[in-house]
Design a protein that fits this description.
By secondary structure, the protein is of the alpha/beta class. The protein is 45% helix and 11% strand. The protein contains eleven helices and six strands. It has helices at residues 33-47, 62-73, 91-106, 115-130, 133-158, 181-200, 227-232, 246-251, 263-279, 286-294, 321-333; strands at residues 2-8, 20-28, 78-85, 169-173, 254-257, 307-310. Helix 5 (133-158) crosses helix 6 (181-200) and helix 10 (286-294) crosses helix 11.
C-alpha cells in the first residue's frame, strides 16, 4: 500500500481558540496508483499556478474541491488524521510534556546490560529534548497517526485488498532539500515508540482473513523482543500470537519526498488543508465539505469521531459546537470497517 503523509498548520502556540493544526495520511492500494496520478495531473493542468507544479487548496474554489473529494471517494483510499488545537498547547504545557518524555526514556537506562544500548537510548532522549516545541508536537501527532494506521488500515485492507499488505510505502512531505533534524529524529524515534506501543496493545487481526502477504512483518517464532520485560520489568501482552516487527514495517520503505513529485503526498496535502479549514468552519458549505471528507475516512473503534483530537495538556478539553457538528458529519459518512459477507 501507499501512504502519503502531510500536515497543515504551524503547530505553534496561539491564544486564539479553534487554531486547529493537523497531520493526515492518505492510504491507498497501489492498484490505484495510475488513477490517483491522473486525478492529480488533471488538477495541476486546470488549477496550478504558472510554474508551481502542484495544486494548493487556495487554488481551488469550493465546487472544485468538492468534486475532487467525490472523485477520491470512488477509490478505496482511506484518510487518517490527527488534529490538535494549538491554543491548548502553551509553551509550559509542551515543555513539561517533552521533559517528562525524556525522563521516561532515561528512567531505566542504567539497567541496560550493554554500553552501546545505554548510549543509544541517551542519544534518542537527547534528540527528543532538542526538538523545538513545534517539531515535538508534530512528532507526537505523527506517532499517533501511524498507530491509527496500523490499528485500522491493516484491518480495512485485509478485507478488500489483502495483497496490498505485502509492502508499506511511506511517503512524507519534505520541507527542505536536505534532511532536517525532525526527519533524522523521526527515523530513529518512531520505530522505538511504535514497537513499545504494539507490545502493550497489539495490532488487531480479523479471524479468518487472508494475512499471507502481511506475514513477513512478524518476528520469526522464538525471536520476539523480550527486552522491555527482561530489562525494565514491563508487563506486555503474553498471548500466543506472533508479534509484529514494527520497526521493519515502518522503516523498510520510507522516504521524505518533494510533494510535487508524488501524487499521494499531493492528495494528502489537499486533504490536510481541507480538514484544517473545515475544523475552523471556513467553507461556505462547511457541513457538506465535512460530509465529503468523512466519506474518505473509516469507522473508528467505539464509534469515536474519525478525526483523533489530541492535546498535550493534562486538563480536559472540549471542542466547540461548530467543530463537533463537523466531526459528527464526518462520522455519519465514514466508510464501514467491516465488509458484510453473505452467509453460504
Amino acid at each position: 500500500m501507499k501512504i502519503g503523509i502531510d500536515e497543515s498548520g504551524t503547530f505553534v502556540y496561539t491564544d486564539a481558540d479553534n487554531s486547529w493544526n493537523c497531520v493526515v495520511a492518505y492510504v491507498y492500494p497501489e492498484v490505484h496508483n495510475r488513477l490517483i496520478q491522473e486525478h492529480v495531473r488533471q488538477l495541476v493542468r486546470r488549477y496550478a499556478r504558472p510554474g508551481g507544479g502542484e495544486v494548493k487548496l487556495r487554488d481551488l474554489g469550493e465546487p472544485a474541491y468538492l468534486d475532487f473529494l467525490a472523485r477520491l471517494h470512488e477509490l478505496d483510499g482511506v484518510l487518517y488524521s490527527i488534529a490538535v488545537n494549538a491554543s491548548t498547547n502553551t509553551p509550559t504545557v509542551v515543555a513539561d510534556h517533552q521533559a517528562d518524555q525524556v525522563r521516561r526514556m532515561l528512567a531505566h537506562v542504567d539497567k541496560m546490560l550493554y554500553q552501546s544500548g545505554r548510549d543509544g537510548v541517551r542519544d534518542l532522549a537527547r534528540r527528543v529534548g532538542d526538538l523545538s516545541h513545534q517539531l515535538y508536537i508534530q512528532m507526537v501527532c505523527q506517532v499517533q497517526l501511524v498507530i491509527q494506521i496500523l490499528h485500522s488500515a491493516v484491518l480495512f485492507f485485509v478485507q478488500r485488498h489483502p495483497r496490498t499488505l505485502g509492502r508499506f510505502r511511506w511517503r512524507i512531505d519534505q520541507k527542505n532539500s536536505s534532511p532536517t533534524a525532525y526527519e533524522k529524529a523521526y527515523a530513529q524515534l518512531l520505530p522505538a515508540f511504535l514497537q513499545t506501543a504494539s507490545l502493550h496493545e497489539p495490532v488487531p487481526m480479523l479471524e479468518g482473513a487472508d494475512y499471507r502477504w502481511f506475514d513477513r512483518f512478524h518476528f520469526p517464532e522464538g525471536e520476539e523482543p523480550t527486552y522491555l520485560h527482561d530489562t525494565y520489568g514491563l508487563e506486555i501482552d503474553d498471548s500466543d500470537e506472533r508479534k509484529l516487527n514494527i520497526g521493519q514495517l515502518v522503516r523498510e520503505d520510507v522516504r521524505f519526498v518533494d510533494s510535487r513529485l508524488d501524487a499521494g503526498v499531493q492528495v494528502a496535502d489537499l486533504l490536510a488543508s481541507g480538514l484544517r479549514r473545515c475544523l475552523r468552519s471556513q467553507f461556505a458549505n462547511n457541513e457538506l465539505v465535512a460530509s465529503r471528507i468523512g466519506a474518505l475516512m473509516v469507522q473508528r473503534q467505539h464509534n469515536n469521531v474519525p478525526v483523533q483530537l489530541i492535546t498535550l495538556s493534562s486538563e480536559e478539553q472540549e471542542a466547540d459546537v461548530q467543530v463537533y457538528s463537523s466531526l459528527l458529519a464526518m462520522r455519519a459518512n465514514a466508510r464501514p470497517m467491516l465488509v458484510r459477507r453473505e452467509r453460504p
